[in-house]
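Format notes (please read before filing issues)

Several people have asked whether sequences and structure tokens are stored in separate files. They are not. Every record keeps both together, in the order shown below: the sequence lines, then the token lines. Line labels are part of the format and must not be stripped during preprocessing.
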Amino acid sequence: MEQDELTLEILSEKRLDQYLRTRSTLFTAVSRDYLLNTLRNDSSFPVRHYIAGNAGEVAACASFYLRPMAVSHNFNITVAMACAIGTLPAYQRQGIGRKLWRYCEKELSEQADAVAIYTGETGTGFKFYRAMGYEPLFFPRPLTLDPECFRTAAVREVATVPFQDASGLMNGADELFRHCYDRNNGYMGDRPDSLLRWSRTSYFYDADISGATPQFSRLEAPDGKLLAYMIWNGPMEKVAWKKDAVEIWEIACRKECSDDDLSALLSAAVNVAAAYGVRLICWSSPEHFLYSKLTASGFEEQPRNLVVLGKWLDLGRSLQAKLDSLAAAQKWKASVKNCSEKFEMKTPEFTVELDTSSLTRLLFGRTSAAAVLASGLAGVYPAGRTESARMMLENIFEPFEWGYFASEFI
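Then the structure lines:
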């Protein structure tokens, strides 16, 4: 394709059929009705589709779900979750993907605070996004269970229904989620409503598209109190890379939940995995208490294969908003200056200099101010005010462990 023929644009209905042909070549097929629904302004989660091509063909495409994400305690941002990103083979290695991506970022900058994407750590996509300024935020640990190795528990009654019919069983699930993932981040903000809205937008929850019906399992304590729950699905016969597993999309339990109790909950998904002769898979963080409970039930950690990458679309604006919030509480002012590859935070008493990589990770809650200062990745002038600068930075940026669920993966 001649570069002067290339057009970059937001997907419209008149280009829908061209886009569908390209998307179906590269990814899991979706219906025209599904796409039309995502283009409507009243979509439960706004979806933005962008295309590159000419008048006759869509050569490359990229889609983004706009949704809240918890970054730190009581702090949500609007993040554009990237998915369905690709270029037709005939148009690869011509810089089209890079031009489309920059166009997407520009268009999204007025609608979202940041972009996040999940990609294979060893794939070509990882190198592409890193070159585009995306920072590694989290490496979720894949855990798999061979049904034949499942450590069975005492028989407990577990209620399991299709997710779309689960409203009657979700009583207490939001409180249990907060209990289980207290002081974690990375999950969808505005829960529990956001989960239900997400299920009406994500094609993984659409059985006609994925080839499987999501399930909700609930385990109660003898007193009727919700003890643990699980959202799971699979095998998803119409999604090529998900055919060989049953996936746990979200799991939560109380800290007092015993290993036997958790095994009883897992049995619903294990039985389906055994019937299909596939593995049961979920993602977890070794720092979270659920990790040891899952491994006690027979899950084994696999080699790291997925990374969460992120980029703030306007670092200066985001940093200034943080400073303004702090200033309102402490009655002092600070300003931000963008100096190409670094940012300066100026107060009447000192200046803090931060590189873009460190600032990105601070804003996402993925590192601490003390660690950045100790490693020399931030400068304080005059040096005698370093302790004051550290206290200010710790008030602005609070690190949190990442809470990761497979339902977040697009």
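For reference, the curators noted about this record: The chain has a mean pLDDT of 87. The radius of gyration is 23 Å.
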